[in-house]
Amino acid sequence: MTSAPAAAPAPATAGTGTSALAITGFGVLSGAGIGPEALAAALTAPAAPVDVSEMFEEELPRNDAHALVDFKVRDHLGRKGTSFFDRSTSLGMVACKEALADTGLEITDDNRARIGITLGTTAGSAKSTSDYSKDTFIQDRPYLVNPLLFPNAVMNCAAGQSGIKFRLQGPNATIAGGPMAMLNVLRYTRNLINCGYADALLAGAVEEFSPHSSWAVHYAQSVFGGDAAPGEGAAVFVVENADAVRAAGRTPDAEVLSIEVGVFEPPGPDGEFSRGLGLCISRALERAGVTAADITTVATAANGMALLDEAEERAIGAVLGEGTARLRVKESTGEAFSASGAFQLAALLARHRAEPARDGELSLITTRSAEGAAGAAVVRGWSRAGGDHG
Amino acid sequence: MSLRRVVITGLGPVSSIGIGASAYSEGLREGVNGVSPIACFDPTGFPYIMAGEVHAFRPENMVRRLSVEEWGRTSLFAASAARLAVADAGIDEDELAASRAGSSMGTTGGESQVLEKLTGDSLTAGMGGLDANLVRQVSSARLSQAVNRELRLTGDAVTLSTACSASNYALGYAYDLIRTGEADYMIAGGADSVGRWSHAGFYRLGALTETACSPFDKDRSGIITGEGGAAMFLESLESAQARGARIHAEVLGYGLNCDANHMVAPNRDSIAECMRIAHANSGVKAEEVDYICAHGTGTPANDFVEASAVVDVFGENAPPISSTKSMLGHTMGAASGLGAIASVLGIAGSFLPPTINFKTPDPDMPKIDCVPNKARTADVRIAQVNGFAFGGNNAIVMLGRPS
The Beta-ketoacyl synthase C-terminal domain covers which part of the protein (chain A) (predicted)? Predict the structure, then answer.
């Protein structure tokens, strides 16, 4: 081995940490299908969840889900090097591939050290980790697990493997946030860009369908109610500094103007949580430099869990008042935990692309968790009707 | 805009060699071995049965707001470490709760110990016979949320799950949030728990050693899995001065990069580059570094690659580089956090933590000073904390004596 050229890297130069982010392309895979068009169509006419009873050997709490039943990674990335990928890694990597195909950003040897990946998750591939534990219980010898599968059992597998696949040497991060993951990822990504650690990130979130995720939805519903089908998929966005994109004469698909998060008392009868989420929404509007009346659509995390849905609606109503349209993406894609947050953003962008009449509209994204975490983001989007894009 | 300087004013280690800053510092100075026979699961049938468990961890005596029944062991490590860090920082709890404050915690396995229990339960009860309260605890997002809930912090709660360098990612992010004015106080660190799945995985990867972790030794043969929690309390220099806080160390900056080459094999050039990035971002020259807290896992590959990269960057007169993993085992997502705390204690207390279990220099490895077996008195003005991980997720943090 030889050492790298000793030329000193330029120091990362921090800006304000609050500049807008540009999205210059995205890839999305959900139960609605692959690509923005499939998602936009599903938003207009949500399809019923599909039969998943043949996907796994394990018992399921229900036989349907918004799952990509026929998804095979080799159809998208070939057989070479993909045979040991788990579903989570496969979905994330294909979403990265789709995002790169959708953007005007070109990766070359000159910039690959400045381009990274930030992916959200809940607990990685719970199936991969659980199967590993299971083998230690049921094998004749507890250590007879498959070493080739070990990286799958660790949460940063999708981001790490995607870094290898697309040879992206910039910061490579995984954030476990569940329903908060996408907003956490956007905040983390904004910091990387505005503080000068990277010029562009593939930022998104991934969640696989598995017996484990299906049961997780089931048990959550046993506590909080609701009957949304489980979902899965990934959405990955090419995120760059908005000023830099415009200075280069490129036009973004969207700008993320603000992202605000916090942790409060969990949703309950006292309304404390709604005040907390309301605070996040107010701060997000303020930092985006917009008013409640400017918001056309709220993409919510609604999933039929009454306690959480009502807490979220109370907060939105308190800040925006009545009458702002809602976009409830989980009606089309199911409950996909961390990926659901990415689908909220993808749904807004997919609709922008499909409906040029919405060019320049401002939307609000809200999310919440049973643990008391809450967040909001303000996004402005455009179609590509003008022909020019990221 | 003007950026704020960021200092560490509170330390909260929960480790196998000591809980709390003074006990941990004592353990480091004495070179205590925190490795012992596995107790948290039945290791029958495993060829190797040692781990760095924190047997003395009693979360019910450490957290005040969280109900220990509702949170997994790793979240409780995180929240307990945060409690210690806040107590060490001497800041009023109500004042902290009313401030712009949050947490940034790293992990490798998150609540995989909970998932492992559920997996075991499902073998007898079926997946339909599980405890809903336990299923809810699986999300790794809960590590940082546990910290916020325990301390009533209403800002960010971020769980960075970038495997074994995750604490460095978390510390770096917390530093940025404070220096850019996004937050005023942050808890940063990491947590992980010992479990069957990782013990088996590292064994089958050929990366586990039988009884003692001996980094940089000629006969080193792998890691010992470990666990624990690490938390540091971060604030701006002005804030610390205004409240008369004791300043342990300053965070000078950090570097991140990705090998983008192999999931588990470390890459010499990429690691060397990450050191250069960390130095550049921190305004530090290589010759100013007094101590390197190694990633130092004790595997043949890591230690060779790490020592080689150090020599690539620092030349023949590299600063002393020791591995706390020799004492703690590999605490995974907590590892670079416990390494950072060890470095802060070294800066504040003018000593170098040792690499214990060292017997024979490795003639095939570039010559380095691994502070063999005995802690050493030394003036540490600038320390470098290395963190590497699966996925080529490299993260290096630079710490300095407050000036």
Answer: 278-349
* Contacts across the A-B interface (CB distance below 8 Å): 308
Nearest to A130 among B119, B181, B268 (CB): B119
**pLDDT score for A5:** 43
Phi and psi at residue A352, in whole multiples of 5°? -60, -45
Range of the domain at A265: 254-381
pLDDT at B338 over 80: yes
As a whole number, mean pLDDT of residues A265-284 equals 96
Strand, helix or coil for residue A259:
strand
Among A86, A263, A274, the strongest candidate for a mutation testing the B interface, having the largest count of B CBs within 10 A, is: A263
Q: Quote the pLDDT of residue B294.
A: 98
Asked if B163 and A155 touch (Cβ cutoff 8 Å), the reply is yes
Query: Which of A247, A273, A305 finishes a domain?
Result: A247
Across A260-283, average pLDDT: 96
Residue A3 touches partner B, C-beta closer than 8 Å: yes
Q: What is the pLDDT of residues A71-130, one digit of tens each?
A: 999 999 999 999 999 999 999 999 999 999 999 999 999 999 999 999 999 999 999 999
Residue A10: inside a domain: no
Chain B residues within 8 A of A194 when measuring between CB atoms: 180
Determine the angle formed by the axes of helices B21-30 and B335-349, rounding to 10 degrees.
80
Backbone CA torsion sign across A130, A131, A132, A134? positive
User: pLDDT digits over B177-216, tens only?
Assistant: 999 999 999 999 999 999 999 999 999 999 999 999 999 9
Of A12, A168, A173, the CB nearest to B169: A173
Judged against a pLDDT cut of 80, whether residue B339 lies above it is answered with yes
> Which one of 3.40.47.10, 3.90.1170.30, 1.40.20.10, 3.60.15.10 gives the CATH number of domain B6-242?
3.40.47.10
Pairwise CB contact (< 8 Å): B139 & A156 = no
Positions of B annotated as catalytic residues are 164, 295, 330
Chain A hits for B236, Cβ within 8 Å: none
Q: What is the pLDDT of residues A305-358, one digit of tens each?
A: 999 999 999 999 999 999 999 999 999 999 999 999 999 999 999 999 999 999
Same domain, A175 and A270: no
Distance from CA of A216 to the nearest CA of B (A): 6
Same domain membership, residue A281 and residue A346: yes
Q: Give the residue ranges of DSSP H helices in A225-265.
A: 242-247
pLDDT of residue A12: 81
Q: What CATH code is assigned to B253-400?
A: 3.40.47.10
**What domain count does chain A have?**
2
pLDDT tens-digit readout, B212-254: 999 999 999 999 999 999 999 999 999 999 999 999 999 999 9
- Give dist(CA A297, CA A324) in Å, integer: 6
Euclidean distance between CA atoms A262 and B246, whole angstroms: 28
CA-based radius of gyration for chain A: 20
Query: For residue B2, what are the CA distances in angstroms to A13, A14, A57, A327, B150?
Result: 11, 9, 58, 40, 32
**What are the two backbone dihedrals, phi and then psi, of residue A326, each rounded to the nearest 5 degrees?**
-110, 145
Residue B156 tokens, joined = 């960010």
CATH of the domain at A232: 3.40.47.10
The domain boundary, picked from A226, A247, A268, lies at A247
